[in-house]
Amino acid sequence: MTNTNGKIALVTGAGRGIGKAIARSLAKSGFHVIVSARTTSEIAQLVSEIESHGGTSEAFEVDLSVRSAVHEFVEKLRDKKINVLVNNAGVGSSQNPKPLVDFDDDFWDLTMALNVTAPYLLTKHLLPHMIESGFGRIINISSINAKVPALHGAAYTASKHAIAGLTKATALEVAGSGVTANAICPGVTATAMNDLRVEYDAARLEKDFAEVEKTASPYGRRLTTDEISPLAVFLASEGSAAINGQLLNVCGGTVMA
Q1: Are 212 and 149 in contact (CB under 8 A)?
Q2: Can 219 be counted among the known catalytic residues?
Q3: 4, 78, 161, 195: which has the fewest Cβ within 10 Å?
Q4: Which of 212, 88, 222, 225 is nearest to 160 (CA)?
C-alpha cells in the first residue's frame, strides 16, 4: 500500500495518544518519522521504541501553542525535506469544560493557538517543498466535533470546524500538484486526555465512568488509537492521491455524514 522511498513524516503531539499511534504506524511502514511534543521524555521514549523495531526517528521538544516557538521549530526543520505533515497536536475540551457563558477566555486563546494557528503555520512553511518536489501529504487530525458540537466545549468545537476549513482551503490550492490535504475526524477515543472528558461527563450526568464510556460509540465503547492510525498511513501513501479535501470519520458510526 505504501511506497515510502525514504520519505520523511512529521507528527506533532506524538508523545501520547493518537499522535503516538500514528508515528509508530508510519515508522513501521518505512517512513523516517520526526516527532514533536512538549514532554521530552515521552518523545525520547517513542524514538527509542521505533528504533528498537528497526525504524528511524528523531524528536523535537516544542510548545506549538507559542507562535515564536513554532517559527523556531520551522527553522530547525528547514533542511529536513518533509513529505508528510500530520498536524495532531491539540488540546481538547476535557482540560477546561464550561458552558459558553462561563467559558475561560485564556483557554479559548490557547485552544485556537494550538489547534488552528500551529497547523496553519506548519502547513504554510512546509508546503513549498512538497509542491516543488511533486509529492506531499497534509493530514490534519480533526474530530467528529468538526461536524457535531461538543457540549461545554465551545473552543474545541470551533477549532475543529476551523481546521476543517483550513484543510479544504489547502486542498483547493494544491489540487493537481501531487500534494493533498485531508482531515481525519476521530470519534471518542481512549486516551489520557479523553479520560478527563469521560470523568467530567460522568460527574455531570451522575453516572459512573463505565456507563458513560459505553455510550461513546455504537460499538458500546471508545475507539482505540490503533483504530485511527491506519487511515493516516493510507493518506500518507501514494495510493491516496485521488483523495483531497476530505473530512474522513473514524468513529464507529457515531456520525454518518
Answers
A1: no
A2: no
A3: 78
A4: 88
- In the chain the domains, ranked by start, together with CATH numbers, are 8-187+226-248 (3.40.50.720), 188-222 (no CATH)
Q: Is the pLDDT of residue 3 over 70?
A: no
CB-CB contact of 158 with 104 (8 Å): no
Pairing of strands 56-61, 247-250: unpaired
Whole-angstrom Cα distance, residue 253 to residue 248?
12
Rounded to an integer, what distance in angstroms lies between the CA atom of residue 69 and that of residue 84?
Answer: 21
Which set of grid coordinates corresponds to residue 71? 517559527
E strands, 13-68, are: 32-37, 56-61
Angle at 226 between CA 222 and CA 232, to 5 degrees: 115
CB 238 within 8 A of CB 7: no
Among residues 99, 100, 93, the alpha carbon closest in space to that of 115 is found at 93
Residues 6+ positions from 144 with CB-CB distance below 8 Å: 185, 186, 187, 249, 251, 254, 255
Evaluate whether 25 touches 1 at the Cβ level (below 8 Å).
no
Among 57, 89, 84, smallest CA distance to 139 is for 84
Q: Are 103 and 154 in contact (CB under 8 A)?
A: yes
What CA–CA distance (Å, rounded) separates 69 from 250?
A: 31
pTM: 0.96
pLDDT for 27-50, tens place per residue? 999 999 999 999 999 999 999 999
What digits encode the pLDDT tens for the residues 115-173? 999 999 999 999 999 999 999 999 999 999 999 999 999 999 999 999 999 999 999 99
